[in-house]
Specification:
Length: 351
């Protein structure tokens, strides 16, 4: 169709592997804390500038802005659930097998988007050029030792301490970061310390196993806009553990769409598990084996837990308070430097 840009991995992927990937054990957590030993990646180039610009065109569509905008105490302006209906390029980009292969490779486990509704949740932070300029000048003053302008600094989080609802997120930067101050993600280590991960540049991404690591996004100063797209992932293998919750997304979602996506993929997983168990029982009988009571009861216990978890996430719609997401009550990290470059710590990933 003329005028429609189709995602083409040869044209739109521009992959350069992350310089480093930190393991859960590097942050002090047990290796089996999550669904993979991988905790977080350095920023890495994923999409071309053209691809990100096409994604941007899709999020600025009138119908996306009007129908898919949500706000909460954690983030005042987010776009959610728009990709399947309104953003075919974005939808295809995150579902393409080549994109998934790259992300899975870094994550150390085969991943797929959790559900259509979670493709490319967009965080928007925008301001005027004069505000951005003022922030750059303030920061320069502070750097020169003339402190006194303490407001609105980059050590204030834009999103408070939290863990995500889904195992992995891939955060894609969609803005030009020229002149940006701050904008990092702070991660909590197992011993209560924190590390900072530098935010990615336009077209670059970071992968984080955010379901298991408390983190917060620091405010970005000095630029007119900071737009990030956060796509959530779960293991592709239905036999792997899936601890996904809806805790942080229920208050900022079209609940019907969210529940459809969640209920359907959880049932699909359960279907695969039941099918495999039935085949195993049938094979045992064919081979003349006795019924393995212990093994089947273990399977049933697992199935009950899985169903209970699913049921526990689906709240009646009138029990969901719109726009209110619980934060973790953790102390703010003391960040000594507003700029990302010269932080002296063995834990700083990217400086
Ligand atoms: Fe998060």
């Amino acid at each position: 169709m003329p005028g429609v840009n189709k995602f083409d991995p040869r044209k739109h992927l521009s992959y350069a592997p992350p310089k480093k990937v930190l393991k859960m054990t590097d942050l002090g957590y047990a290796e089996d804390t999550g669904v993979s030993p991988v905790a977080v990646s350095h920023p890495f180039q994923l999409f071309t500038e053209e691809a990100v610009d096409l994604m941007r065109t899709e999020i600025f569509k009138k119908e996306v802005q009007e129908e898919c905008t949500f706000g909460s105490n954690l983030a005042p302006c987010v776009l959610r659930g728009y990709a399947k209906k309104h953003a075919p390029f974005t939808y295809e980009a995150w579902n393409h097998p080549d994109t998934l292969a790259l992300i899975s490779h870094i994550a150390g486990v085969g991943l797929v988007p959790v559900m259509d509704y979670e493709i490319a949740h967009v965080n928007c932070q925008t301001k005027t050029e004069s505000q951005a300029k003022e922030e750059r000048e303030r920061s320069q003053l502070e750097d020169e030792g003339r402190r006194g302008c303490q407001e609105n600094r980059a050590d204030k989080p834009i999103v408070g301490w939290h863990t995500d609802s889904y195992p992995f997120v891939c955060v894609l930067m969609m803005s030009d970061c020229e002149g940006m101050i701050g904008g990092e993600t702070a991660l909590r280590t197992a011993d209560g310390q924190y590390i900072k991960v530098r935010g990615p540049a336009k077209g670059c991404a970071v992968i984080l196993q955010g379901r298991y690591i408390a983190h917060q996004a620091m405010r970005a100063l000095g630029t007119r806009e900071r737009i990030t797209a956060v796509t959530s992932f779960r293991p592709n293998d239905p036999f792997l553990r899936d601890d996904s919750e809806l805790r942080t997304v229920r208050p900022v979602s079209d609940l019907s769409e969210l529940y459809h996506g969640f209920a359907e993929y959880r049932l699909e997983m359960m279907g695969a598990r039941i099918k495999r168990e039935r085949e195993k029982l049938a094979a045992d009988r064919r081979d003349g084996k006795k019924f393995d009571t212990l093994a089947h009861k273990t399977f049933l216990r697992g199935a009950i837990t899985f169903v209970e978890q699913t049921n526990g996430e689906i709240f009646q719609q009138d029990k969901v308070e719109k726009g209110i997401i619980d934060e973790l009550n953790l102390a703010d990290p003391e960040i000594e430097s507003e700029r990302v470059e010269p932080v002296q710590s063995p834990h700083v990933l990217y400086s």
